[in-house]
Amino acid sequence: MSPAVEAQAQEKGVMLEPFVHQVGGHSCVLRFGEQTICKPLIPREHQFYKSLPAAMRKFTPQYRGVVSVSFEEDEEGNLCLIAYPLHSDPAADLENKDPLVDCEPKSKLLKWGKMVTSSLLVDTENYSKDGRSRHSRKDKDKSVHKLQEDVELEWLQHAEVLYYRLECSHSNAVPQLKHNPWSLKCHQQHLQRMKENAKHRNQYKFILLENLTWRHTVPCVLDLKMGTRQHGDDATEEKKAVQIRKCQQSTSASIGVRLCGMQVYQSDTGQLMFMNKYHGRKLTLPDFKEALFQFFHSGQRLRRELLSPVLRRLRDMQAALEACESYRFYSSSLLIIYDGEEEVEVEPEMEDEEEEGVGEVAGALGFPHNTRSPVVDVRMIDFAHTTCRYYREDSVVHEGQDSGYIFGLQNLITIISELENHSTD
């Protein structure tokens, strides 16, 4: 970004876009720039990122500071969220880059309201539930608001597994995902809440974090809720009872991990498959193992080359957590991310060039793709209920390791190891 464009961005702010690769959670995650996302600031989570032990940093998204976000409507009534620099934030680490470096100026971005409305009208018919085609809207003059209610209701009640076709309009175009059902649900709910509060409050703090999907052409994302306990120490009795029941009725209680969301690209059909948290709660242990198999399967073959890197990362993470005294990561999630666009085999004569960093070939979808070993990312996210002895205001101080989270990691390692062993038979 040039100095002139950067100055313009700082002056006018950054229009936040929906982050289309959110597959779980209930907080609204937004796209700030190509490499940066943001989410509403929760003091406890903010404190965690600021005081993160050095050994844990490679297992979490990079913290990039705080912005002030305001809810605005333009002359046409489009809903906009605009992020402005928060110059008074003393918590931003010196090592973090300027949060506006990789953003785009407000003037160049689409209005959110238009984008969400148009994509909803056009693309809901591209979704199919459990592989079956969706019928078209019967009532074409139905209002957008009513349509949104209908789609929301269907997602919540029925469509726990959805398929969405990605299409390229040109031979060298990258397939684009306009939205996924879960991220759109979170966006709609958050916008509505902010709109209702706009008369009383119009300044919100959002935390900036690394976008873990930005390098990938077609990100495949698995969101796993970790641990045998999900409620924080400050939970009300009602909230505690609800969370305990969810754990008891899912794989959280038995293996310390449950599926909270998933999107995976199936190259045989050109579709992304989405699985939401409501489906994840219903999975038995065999179902959970099958879902992991589906996540690492391209629709044509099991991506065996991904399993060893994931296992190495999980084992490193386990060792780091075992050294974390008094931390409890209640309701935290684990993300596993890889690129659904498969890499092309390197020809022997290209190996020397590849070592020098110039070995790129055209991928199956017609765009340049690096031929290095597969990049798999495994990170911990969501720390709104994390606690440790350094949080002075906490009434409960835990001793030792987070055994529930580590128990989940151990079982996840075992299941993926079984998958790897079976795949080599």
TrEMBL record:
One of its GO terms (biological process) is inositol phosphate biosynthetic process. One of its GO terms (molecular function) is ATP binding. The keyword Kinase applies. Keywords: ATP-binding, Kinase, Nucleotide-binding, Transferase. InterPro entries: IPK, IPK_sf. It comes from the Eukaryota. GO terms for cellular component: cytoplasm; nucleus. It holds the Pfam family IPK. Its EC number is 2.7.-.-. Belongs to the inositol phosphokinase (IPK) family. This is Kinase. It comes from Seriola lalandi dorsalis.
